Amino acid sequence: MTAFQRHILPHVTSRYDVQEVRTSADEGGLLEVDYEWDRVRVPRSLREFEARWANRRNPLDYSGVWRFRELLPFAPDSQIVTIGEGQTVLQRSDECGKYVGMNAGGLYLQYEGMNPSGSFKDNGMTAASTHARMVGAKIAACASTGNTSASLAIYGSTSGLFRVVVFVGSGKIAFGKLSQALDYGALTVQIEGDFDDALARVREVCPEVGIYLCNSVNPFRLEGQKTIMYRVLEGLDWQPPDWIVVPGGNLGNSSAFGKAFAELKQLGLIDRIPRLAVINADGANTLYQLYDRQGLRWNGGKPDIAAIDRFYHVMDAEKRKADTLASAIQINRPVSLLKCLRALETCDGVVREVSDQAILDAKAKVGACGFGCEPASGASVAGAKLLREQGIIAPSDRVVCILTGHQLKDPDATVGYHSAKPGSIDPKLAAHGVMKVQFGNRPVPVANNVDQIIDLLRKFAG
Ligand code: F0G
Fold first, then answer.
1. pLDDT tens-digit map of 24-41
2. What percent of the chain has pLDDT over 70?
3. Within a domain: residue 162?
4. Is the pLDDT of residue 47 over 90?
5. How far is the CA of 324 from the centre of ligand 1 (A)?
6. Range of the domain at 377
7. From the alpha carbon of 256, which atom of ligand 1 is closest?
8. Is a pLDDT exceeding 80 seen at residue 171?
9. Which residues pair with 107 in a beta bridge?
10. Of 147, 197, 216, which is best to mutate to test ligand 1, by the most ligand atoms within 8 angstroms of its C-beta?
11. How far is the CA of 215 from the centre of ligand 1 (A)?
């Protein structure tokens, strides 16, 4: 056996077979997948993966996740469940870079919205679905702010290997995402409460009913998400950038990125690890509060767990709920917090919070310069801009912002922003502190009259 599941804290020695279905260790705490690398045939250089570009008819080589399968070697090829995920693009965006304050050639956008279900979640779900198949799961479930549920539902519907149950908070999910779970035929359970409630309940009920859990407490999910970083490296001719900037919600992505870079370094496949910036929405900022304000650190595997407990205790006593227009990251109890702290240590990371105003402005800028994204993804560009203003990112750095979800996931947010007239902001936006629209592009009403339309177009043409 080359792969096993182990406790994330280095001083806890619990270790389990990959065939076990677990979302925590016996003594509690997160698990991760670990490998005996000396028993795996790992390429000597990342460039060796390029041979697979010429072999697109093999679904495993076509997949943007599994073409790197030697770097997540927990499953035999015959068990892998793939739907062509990971055909994503790293786009150099000088125009967006100007907005952030970068020199030309300094800003890249990694479009994970191009995945089959429209978000980065497919990178992880292909891995979790593979493990579900390895253990013969018949029903799989997750709690979600929308994208995880869409992703699990599409893997269930396309593979036909398992049925899917998704738990979502009531009124907390963008319609694009809800429509996917419904259309893919998942049993969709709307819990009275928010994502944090839905995740707590799904973790309680799954073991009772023997359902396979696909939230990122499932360590196999993060194995798939590591490949986002491999593709970023691939897009940069295998040269690590200076910065990776990613929105932080449940903190699975940032955790996976840290693990990817730690392993690549350990394997001698890169010589330098990029710095990591994790960006919270200021209405859902547990990581920012703990890491930046209170100085909580991974501390070589001995984080101050009591400080985290105290933070949550106060949060509950004050009945504080996460609240941001970036509904994907409206999360106050990030389940991968400890793994993220480790990633921040690995990558000499920083954490920032940004307002909904900054998120929506950045999102509009991304749309105007490229493929577009959903609000949560805008947090990465807004965060990069903030770090530039603070002088932490230099104009000459090379920065990759991860755009986690497709623009069409949340059209209400986009149309609400662009339709705002000066002085009449949509009340939902105003309630979240979005008081002005910098990059609005309002639809222009015109009579059903050729002369008036020509008039309008002449003005447009200048
Ligand atoms: N961006 C998008 C579009 C997301 O859907 C999520 C998380 C994140 C960022 C945050 O990523 O959790 O790895 O820190 N969405 C989850 C869901 C929670 O249920 O779809 P993270």
1. 999 999 999 999 999 999
2. 100
3. no
4. yes
5. 13
6. 89-117+222-412
7. 13
8. no
9. 399
10. 147
11. 11
Which atom of ligand 1 lies closest to the CA of 253? 13
Residue 98 inside a domain? The answer is yes
**What is the Å distance from ligand 1's center to 255 Cα?**
12
Among 160-169, 283-292, 427-436, the range scoring the smallest mean pLDDT is 427-436
- Using pLDDT thresholds of 50, 70 and 90, give the confidence band for residue 392: very high
Stretch 194-223: mean pLDDT: 94
| Dist CA 128 CA 23 (whole Å) | 12
**CA pair distance 149, 195, nearest whole angstrom:** 12
Q: Say how many Å lie between the CA of residue 19 and the centre of ligand 1.
A: 27
Q: Is the pLDDT of residue 187 over 90?
A: yes
Question: What DSSP letter does each residue of 21-60 carry, written as one string?
Answer: --SS-TTSS-EEEEE-GGGS---SSGGGGGGGGG-TTSHH
Distance CA 142, CA 152 (A): 8
For ligand 1, the distance from its centroid to the CA atom of residue 147, given in whole angstroms, is 7
Give distance in angstroms: CA of 56 to centre of ligand 1: 29
Residue nearest to atom 12 of ligand 1 (CA): 250
Residues found in the chain: 462
**For the segment 253-270, what is each residue's pLDDT rounded down to a tens digit?**
999 999 999 999 999 999
Task: Say how many Å lie between the CA of residue 285 and the centre of ligand 1.
Answer: 14
- Between CA 323 and CA 284 the distance in angstroms is 6
Instruction: Name the domain count of the chain.
Output: 1
What's the pLDDT score for residue 425? 82
Which of 410, 417, 406, 405 lies closest to 441 in space, CA to CA?
Answer: 417
In a domain, 215, yes or no: no
CATH number at 406 reads: 3.40.50.1100
C-alpha distances in Å from residue 159, one per residue of 87, 88, 219: 19, 21, 21
Q: How far is the CA of 404 from the centre of ligand 1 (A)?
A: 7
List the one residue out of 232, 226, 353, 240 whose CA is nearest residue 291: 353
pTM of the model: 0.97
pLDDT of residue 345: 98
Ligand 1, atom nearest to 250 Cα: 12
Residue nearest to atom 10 of ligand 1 (CA): 249
For residue 247, the ligand 1 atom closest to its alpha carbon is 9
pLDDT of residue 435: 85
In a domain, 135, yes or no: no
Residues within 6 Å of ligand 1 by CB: 119, 121, 144-148, 247-253, 328-329, 374, 376-377, 404-405
> What per-residue confidence (pLDDT) applies to 172?
75
Res 1: pLDDT: 63
